[in-house]
Amino acid sequence: MAEPLRAAIFDVDGVLVASPHERAWREALAGYADPAGFTTEFYQAYVAGKPRMDGARATLDRLGGEGAAARAGEYATAKQALIDKLIETRQFEAFADAVRLAAALDAAGLKLALASSSKNAGAMLRQLSLPDGRTLLSIFDADLSGREVPHGKPAPDLFLLAAEAVGAPPEQSVVIEDAPAGIQAARAGRMASIGIARLGDEALLQAAGADLVVTSLDQVDVAVLPQGVVRARPAPEDSHA
């Protein structure tokens, strides 16, 4: 029998926010490698969910020429300068389905935590509002985004720290992620996981081991999720079965 959930741990980029990270990584690549090779598929497979330096090294290892990875620090710095500018000019928005899920789980009494590899998560969520006027950041009990940990995703360190911060055992926590590395981290931490496939990448999230993969977080059965049942909302025709 499933254990009741006490915490929901959210990634930010691609889950809560349509952030400009992918754009920043691609545009900053000019001068280091051909930006045309930095496709959405590449971003999801090798960069999304990982710490900044890991993402920079992975990109230059695969797209740069010989010795390009030695410039990973420069590339990461250039990307950060660009993302700061994009955030300052508010070139991002919240995903409405994720806001609804977070608000519903907050209302159900779960502790909410942010656990993104990005150091910019709080800055974005502070600028986004709930329907009642509160900031989106205000409903989260802990923000571990950008926290330095011994090992980044796909290791579970950040998620374990987030669960500890809100006083929940890993086994009673669910992770909401859009990146395969994040799903792998949840599994490694003995946590349930929901993969949100906004980019047609259901197969990647399923292969990573997500307990549930959806294309909208409105598809999650919120009525039973606090009980530890991770499933999609029944289809209308099934409701009278």
Layout of helices and strands:
Layout: E1 7-10, E2 17-18, H1 21-28, H2 40-47, H3 52-63, H4 72-88, E3 93-94, H5 96-107, E4 111-114, H6 121-125, E5 142-143, H7 157-165, E6 173-177, H8 180-188, E7 192-196, H9 202-208, E8 212-214
In short:
It is built from 9 helices and 8 strands. It is of the alpha/beta class.
Supply the number of helical segments: 9
Q: Give the mean pLDDT.
A: 92
Largest sheet, strands/sense/barrel: 6 strands, parallel
Total strands: the figure is 8
How are helices and strands ordered from N to C? Answer: EEHHHHEHEHEHEHEHE
Low-confidence stretches: none
**Beta-strand content:** 5-15%
Question: What can you tell me about this protein's structure?
Answer:
The strands form two sheets. A six-stranded parallel sheet has the order 5-4-1-6-7-8, sandwiched between helices. A two-stranded antiparallel sheet has the order 2-3. Helix content is 36%, strand content 11%. The relative contact order is 0.18. Helix 8 links the parallel strand 6 (173-177) and strand 7. The radius of gyration is 18 Å and the shape is globular. The longest helix has 17 residues, at 72-88. Helix 3 crosses helix 4 and helix 8 packs parallel to helix 9 (202-208). With 241 residues, the protein is an alpha/beta fold.
